[in-house]
Write a structure and sequence with these properties.
The chain has 106 residues and is mostly helical. 62% of the residues lie in helices and 0% in strands. The protein has 5 helices and no strands. α3 runs antiparallel to α4. The relative contact order is 0.13.
Length: 106
């Protein structure tokens, strides 16, 4: 199965959300796909992953301020993937950061 940014928000039973993306990242971690962005991140180590999160965040902010919707939409998925890879590397799940009794208050 191939996952592309355009389809990443369709999860089980076509349910959209970040949980599907988290599942894909977990699958890539367990079953590496040579050359995939996710596996290149994991192979680079936590320092490089954290650096990439910062780079992608800066690029996302630049695209947001430039009012170019298409470029912004292109950066958004990569920023999400990179951030979730960093979380996965630190053994932090979306459930860990959800608001509620076990997550942070919002």
């Amino acid at each position: 199965m191939s996952y592309r940014c355009g389809h990443m928000f369709q999860g089980k039973n076509s349910t959209p959300g970040f949980y599907f993306l988290e599942e894909v990242i977990q699958l890539r971690k367990k079953n590496p796909k040579v050359g995939s962005y996710t596996n290149r991140l994991f192979d680079s180590g936590i320092n490089k992953i954290a650096q990439k999160v910062g780079e992608e965040a800066v690029e996302l902010v630049i695209e947001a301020k430039d009012q170019d919707r298409e470029k912004f939409l292109t950066k958004r998925p990569i920023s999400c993937i990179t951030t979730l890879c960093c979380c996965r590397r630190k053994n932090v799940t979306l459930e860990d950061v959800e608001p509620g009794p076990s997550g942070p208050p919002f």
